[in-house]
Amino acid sequence: MLVLTRKTGQEIIIDDNIRITVTACGDGRVKLGISAPSHIKVDRAEVAARIAAEEADSVVELACR
Fold first, then answer.
1. Which of 2, 10, 17, 39 fits 6 for a cystine, CB–CB 3.0-4.6 Å?
2. What CA–CA distance (Å, rounded) separates 38 from 55?
3. Smallest Cα–Cα separation from 19: which of 32, 3, 30, 29?
4. pTM confidence score
5. d(CA 8, CA 25)
6. Which Pfam families match (predicted)?
7. Any alpha helices (H) in the chain, and if so which ranges?
8. pLDDT tens digits, one per residue of 23-45
9. 35: how many CB neighbours lie within 10 A of its CB?
10. Sign of torsion, CA 38 41 44 46?
C-alpha cells in the first residue's frame, strides 16, 4: 500500500487516466473527487460488497432453476 499526504486541491494520478483529488478536509473526514474513464467502476467498499453479494445471490438463484 502506498500512503501519501496531500493537501486540499492536490491530486493523485493513477495510470495516466484516473485522478483522485482531495476536495476538502476536516471534522475527521476527507472528501475525495475521483475522475476515471466510464469503463472503470468506482464504488465505495461497502457498495462494492453489496453489489457482489447481490450478484452471487442471482447466480445461486439461476443455478437452482
1. 10
2. 21
3. 32
4. 0.76
5. 7
6. CsrA (PF02599)
7. 45-63
8. 999 999 999 999 999 999 999 99
9. 12
10. positive
